[in-house]
Amino acid sequence: MKNNPGSGQVGINIAKSDDKAVKYVFIETFGCQMNVGDSERMVSLLADSDFIETEDPKKADLIILNTCSVRDKAEQKVYSSAGRYRELKTEKPELILGISGCVAQQGGEGLLKRMPYVDMVVGTHNVHKISAIVSQIRGGGKRRSTTEMYDGFSPDEYALNADSYKNKIKFFVSIMRGCNNFCTYCIVPYVRGREVSRSLADIEKEVNALAGAGTKEITLIGQNVNSYVGEVSFPGLIKRICLIGGIERVRFVTSHPKDISEELIYLYGEEEKLVKSLHLPLQSGSDKVLGRMGRGYTSGSYMAKINLLKKLYPDMAITTDIIVAFPGEDESDFAATMNIVKEVEFDGIFSFKYSVRPGTKAEEFTADHIEPDIAKKRLSTLQELQKEIGKRKSRALVGTDQMVLVEGRSKADASELTGRTPCNRVVNFSTKNIVAGDIASISIVGAYANSLRGECL
Ligand code: SAH
Ligand code: SF4
Ligand code: F3S
């Protein structure tokens, strides 16, 4: 499975002993944690129809582009990727090409018309039907688009093949889907539907199966995990997951600043397994812009939460998302964002230029549109500042000891191991005494742009 930058998840390898009917699937994943989770599910479900995952699209009998439509650029990438895979179909006409994810949800039948070489379009609520859809097409069925949306989960929606849990040091577990917030710029509520939470029993069952198969780290995922409503609250759910033996680390993504409760903030101090790392998207430091975005918090209430977190947990890693050049953002609004970035010193920022999304409220804010050259300049000013902060923060880790969850061999150098600190920083190091799945104390001896160098104590 190819993951595009930002999606940060390891590939999936499902071993099969019987290779007489082996077929290969290649999945290219764009976008957020929800798509990464959905790609994992598709690989697992397709294993039941004898598909093995490959990293090589040329070898594939089935190619799926799991797409993102959060920004115009993300959407354009899909069309260029699909065009590349189209050429493979000339050499191998039986190759099936599918589009899933948020562009699929939005484009539906229109994508089949626009791209006559695409065989199937699978919407965000229909991932669990993947095997049935593929079998139908393989059996000579018509090209099809499946994009119905549902208010709840169907009982089998998360039922995975037991084999797919094996050899996963870390795994994304969906606890909810959809979003009710309708921030004025955002397409997500339209392509993922309204919020619906998975039952506690179902989530626990999945995490127990993962723990039994050796998984050490669970990331609870949803567009807005703090809005989880089940038999327990979101902090209650974390407590239950932390009780599961074998699971060593628990993370979650994404949280909305307006919904992060004091109970959740204090939970970091009570649950050792809950790692001290939080992604809390700010979007803008200007109250005027936040108001127009419909975010439901102010820069002051955001900072009050950050200050409490920093006071309680000085080592906590905090990351964020920022949009620059939202319609109407003037120099003083942008300066307010820069000030918060300087004050918080985030461990990482995902920063974007505002991109108009069809059908959203902000599409109407055309009169306040920001010129592209100004948007570009603001983005690079912000990114330069963050680069400096990032370097400083990485260097500050040199000389510390970090508990690293070992994930396996480093991709760049197979003689080395790679793992992550509780704050999710990549550490590469050499040793013979530990294996994937171990948590080891590693002394940090060097800091690079995207990773740390360590020595095993
Ligand atoms: N649910 C999360 C965000 C999901 S979308 C939250 O509310 O924080 C991921 C990120 O994409 C957002 O945080 C935002 O920074 C960015 N984004 C969303 N819509 C965008 C748009 N129209 N233009 C530019 N960036 C956008
Ligand atoms: Fe989009 Fe806002 Fe929902 Fe996040 S909270 S997914 S930014 S609408
Ligand atoms: Fe993109 Fe869909 Fe996620 S639009 S950010 S893949 S919910």
CATH class of the domain at 12-146, please? Alpha Beta
Query: What can be said about the biggest beta sheet?
Result: 7 strands, parallel
Helix content: 25-40%
Query: What's the helix count?
Result: 13
The CATH architecture term of the domain at 12-146 is: 3-Layer(aba) Sandwich
The CATH superfamily of the domain at 12-146 bears the name: Methylthiotransferase, N-terminal domain
Give the terminus-to-terminus CA distance: 34 Å
Q: Extract low-pLDDT stretches.
A: 5-19
Strand tally: 20
Ligands in the structure?
A: S-adenosyl-L-homocysteine, iron/sulfur cluster, FE3-S4 cluster
Question: Mind telling me the C-alpha Rg?
Answer: 22 Å
Task: Kindly report the average pLDDT value.
Answer: 92
User: How is the CATH topology of the domain at 12-146 named?
Assistant: Rossmann fold
Principal-axes shape call: globular
Strand content: 15-25%
Report the structural category: alpha/beta
